[in-house]
Design goal:
The strands form two sheets. This protein has a five-stranded mixed sheet with strand order 2-4-5-7-6. Strands 1-3 form a two-stranded antiparallel sheet. The longest helix has about 70 residues, at about 125-200. Residues about 1-15 and about 315-325 have low confidence and may be disordered. A hairpin with a 2-residue loop joins β4 (about 290-300) and β5. By secondary structure, it is α+β, with helices and mostly antiparallel strands. The two termini are about 30 Å apart. The radius of gyration is 36 Å and the shape is rod-shaped. The chain is built from ten helices and seven strands.
C-alpha cells in the first residue's frame, strides 16, 4: 500500500507520524490486510453466534471473508494502476471498479448464505439486494482506508521533501551571508596593506600579510554554514585584531571577558568579526585617541549572552549607527541569526550609559553543530 535545540520552554512538540510502521509499505499493506479481514471475520462470527445461529453458519462467513480478502487484493492492484492516470479517468474507473466488485461480492455472498437459509440454494433479487448493502459498505470502507492511507503517505513524503528543500535553502543562504564577509574584510585589509606599501613600510606590510594569511587559513578551514565554539570564535577575533593593530597601534585597545562555562557553546562562524570591524570603523578610526573595544560572553541558564561595545562617539541625533560601508555588517548578522535560530534569539543595538555603542546578542546554549548534520 501505496531543530536546533531550544530551551525546554521553546522545544517544538514532535509531529505525530506513523512513518516507522509505513517505512516498508509492502509489509504494512499485508499486515493491515491480514489484521483487517481477521477482525472482520471475528466480528461477523461473534455477531452471528450471539444472534442464535449455529456454528455451521460461520462457514459462509469464513467464505465471505476469504472472498473479500481476495477481491480487495485485486482492488489494490487496480487502484494502484488508476492512480497514475488522469484524475477524471481515474475517478471514473475507481467508481466503476468499486461497483463491479460490489456486485460480484454480493452475488457470491448471497449464493453462499443461501445454503444455510433455504432448502433451495440460489441467488434471488431479495438476497442480492440485502447482500449489496453489506458488501458495498465493506468495500467502500476498505477503499476509503486505502486512499486515505495513501494520501497520508503522500503528504508525509511531500512534507519531508519540503523540509529537505528548506534546509538546503537555509544552508545556501547561510553560506551566501557568510561569504559576504570575506570580500568585505579583504577589501579593507588589502587597502591597508596597499597604504603601507605606498608609505614604503614594507616590514609592517609583510607582517600584516603574514597575519592575514594566518587569519584566512584559520577561517577558511571551517564550512561557511558550520558553527564554531565561542573559544574558536574569540581566537579568530584575536587574529583579526592583530591585523588591525598593525594599522591603529595604541589607538586600538581591546579586552575580552569570556565566561569559561560559555567557551564550548557554539555560534555561527565569524559572527562577531563584523561587529568589531564596525566598532573600529566608527569608534577607533574617527577619534585621535582611538577607543576601547570590549567583548563579553556570559552564560545565563540555557542562554549565551554576547556583548560587543566600544567607547566611541556612540549615537548621533538619535540615529542608529549605520552598517558597514559595503552594506553588510549589522544587517548581515541579523540575517545570519534569523537563519540559524529563527525567533529564538535576541539582537539589540544602542548607546552605552557611559558613552559609546553596544551590540547585544542572546542565543541558545548549544554544544553540537546541528547545521553540519542537516546537510
Amino acid at each position: 500500500m501505496a531543530s536546533l535545540p531550544l530551551p525546554p520552554s521553546q522545544k517544538a512538540r514532535p509531529r505525530l507520524s506513523a512513518r516507522p510502521f509505513f517505512e516498508n509499505k509492502i509489509r504494512a499493506f499485508w499486515t493491515l490486510q491480514a489484521v483487517g479481514w481477521a477482525g472482520y471475520l471475528l466480528l461477523r462470527g461473534v455477531s452471528s453466534v450471539s444472534n442464535g445461529l449455529t456454528l455451521d453458519a460461520v462457514i459462509p462467513i469464513i467464505i465471505e471473508a476469504i472472498v473479500g480478502y481476495c477481491l480487495t487484493l485485486l482492488l489494490s492492484a487496480l487502484y494502484g494502476y488508476y492512480r497514475g492516470l488522469p484524475v477524471a479517468l481515474s475517478v471514473f474507473l475507481i467508481i466503476a471498479t468499486l461497483a463491479a466488485a460490489t456486485f460480484v461480492y454480493a452475488v457470491l455472498d448471497a449464493f453462499t448464505f443461501s445454503f444455510i437459509t433455504t432448502a433451495t440454494p440460489g441467488v434471488t433479487l431479495t438476497r442480492l439486494l440485502g447482500s449489496v448493502y453489506v458488501t458495498f459498505t465493506v468495500l467502500f470502507g476498505w477503499s476509503a482506508l486505502y486512499f486515505g492511507i495513501n494520501f497520508y503517505l503522500i503528504v508525509e513524503q511531500q512534507i519531508d521533501e519540503m523540509q529537505v528543500l528548506e534546509m538546503q535553502a537555509s544552508s545556501a543562504q547561510l553560506a551566501m551571508l557568510r561569504y559576504q564577509l570575506n570580500p568585505h574584510f579583504l577589501f579593507n585589509t588589502l587597502n591597508s596593506i596597499s597604504t603601507l606599501v605606498l608609505l614604503k613600510q614594507t616590514e609592517r606590510a609583510n607582517a600584516m600579510l603574514s597575519r592575514l594569511s594566518s587569519f584566512l587559513r584559520y577561517t577558511l578551514a571551517n564550512e561557511p554554514t558550520a558553527h564554531v565554539t565561542v573559544r574558536q570564535e574569540v581566537e579568530t577575533l584575536k587574529l583579526y585584531l592583530e591585523i588591525e593593530k598593525m594599522r591603529f597601534e595604541d589607538r586600538l585597545r581591546t579586552s575580552f571577558d569570556v565566561d569559561p562555562r560559555a567557551e564550548r557553546a557554539r555560534l555561527p562562524s565569524l559572527l562577531l568579526q563584523p561587529l568589531v570591524e564596525n566598532a573600529i570603523k566608527y569608534a577607533v578610526s574617527p577619534q585621535e585617541d582611538g577607543a576601547d573595544i570590549d567583548v563579553a560572553v556570559r552564560l545565563s541558564g540555557e542562554r549565551v549572552q554576547i556583548a560587543v561595545s566600544d567607547t566611541g562617539p556612540g549615537l548621533h541625533d538619535a540615529v542608529i549607527r549605520p552598517s558597514l560601508s559595503t552594506g553588510v555588517g549589522l544587517a548581515n548578522i541579523r540575517d545570519r541569526l534569523a537563519q540559524a535560530y529563527g525567533p529564538d534569539h535576541r539582537f539589540e543595538t544602542g548607546a552605552r550609559p557611559t558613552g559609546g555603542f553596544s551590540v547585544e546578542i542572546e542565543i541558545p546554549f548549544q554544544l553540537e553543530d546541528l547545521n553540519r548534520e542537516v546537510q
